[in-house]
Sequence to fold (336 residues):
Amino acid sequence: MTRAGWRHRWRDRWRRGLPLGRLFGFPVALNPSWLPLGALLAVGYGHLVGRSRPGLATPAAYAIGLGLVVLPFWVSILIRTYAWIVILGNAGLVNRTLQSLGLIGAPLPILYSELGVTIAEGMAVTALAMSNRRVTGVRTSQGAIAAPIVVNAAGPAAARVGRLAGLDLPVHPRRRHIFFTEPFPEIPGPVPLTSDVTSGFYFRKDMEQVLLSPGDVEDIGEDFDVPMDWGKVEELVRKAIHRLPIIADARIAGGWAGLRPLTPDDHAIIGWAPGVEGFFLAVGFGGHGFQHSPATGRYVAEWLVDGTPSLDLSLFDPGRFGAGRCGAATGRTRTR
Fold:
């Protein structure tokens, strides 16, 4: 890790607080800004105890004094664990007041998680802030956010986000349906995911029901809204009965549809966007992004913080599709 990386980590750690573990399932950190106050109270308490007359040095007095010493610590825990919900959160009292007065355009990240992440929900990204082919932040429906690095992990909408930076990402959202039956004990479980590679049909047992998909891959011209096409049930039944005749006795109880972000070679795109500084890509997982997200998050974090991942990710190089698709390949890594 570079010297600049270490400076960044310690500066960021001081801002976010010293980790103390977890309290009732929540991450707890003690902000170093509380330390001088705690030290001042501790010195004062020690001086008071040392010079107090025997009649005043009662257990109750000791307990009160000790409570004052640890008060900043417990206040820090309570604020960072609970009060953010109604006071300091993105939709909390402080941010709502500041926004209503017109003092800020977007919620201030007053609170943070153990890893320094602020999650902003219900905020649409409308544009990328750019300067000399470098991304400097994002513009959202609730104001601008400056950022030295922006990560495109937009799933089916990855191509649309890429176009905000002038990129033509070969990520194609395609609709797929999954249906489920009423309880169907005739197929005993558990049954793992079983696929017919010829027709694309697949199924698996989920509790007492059976999940089935016709394996459809359809461009509906959308990358966010996914309307159901109940006409796909007919295709599903035909494929299912051909491969699993007993399923003819089952009844379809419901279903849903989703978008799979597909790439030309069915591999994800992970790496720095060619030709655009400060723009990182983690897209095109073909419907398996949730499954792959723990490993992806780990190695992307290593890449962004340390300058290179500990695992060779060259298979997912964004430049492999050529200049006409994703921009010119650079084959480089960067450090912050």
Summary: The chain has seven helices and 13 strands. Residues 3-81 form one domain. The radius of gyration is 27 Å. Residues 59-81 form the longest helix (23 residues).
